[in-house]
Amino acid sequence: MRDPETDRLLTDVRRAVAAARAGGATTRACIFDATTAAVDADATAWPSDEARHAANNACRVVEPPTVKANPAPRSKPPALTRLLWHLANRVAERKQQQP
After folding, report:
1. What pLDDT is attached to residue 76?
2. How many CB atoms are located within 10 Å of the residue 35 CB?
3. Fewest CB within a 10 Å sphere: which of 38, 41, 72, 96?
4. pTM for this prediction
5. 46 or 91, which is more confident?
6. How confident is the model over 50-66, as pLDDT tens digits?
7. How does DSSP assign the chain, residue by residue?
């Protein structure tokens, strides 16, 4: 028999993964996001170290560390995409620095 907190975490992870997969997200992204959200109980904007560790371990089941990246070169993203990405990162950095 599972402890109620473990059961709640597993239920949260299942729901989040199912919703994300229905939206077209990758399996690894689903597992990582759902695991960090369940471990942190949606209390933070950035995953804690404990949540990252748990999520990375969960992702290894789907994508073992021996998997190699695609060696084909990627094309450079359009300039507008790069600009928006840069701006989003700046906003996130400022938000994280605020007390």
Report:
1. 84
2. 25
3. 72
4. 0.43
5. 91
6. 888 888 887 777 666 56
7. ---HHHHHHHHHHHHHHHHHHHTT--HHHHHHHHHHHHHHTT--SS--HHHHHHHHHHHHHHS-TTPPPP-SPPPPPPHHHHHHHHHHHHHHHHHHH--
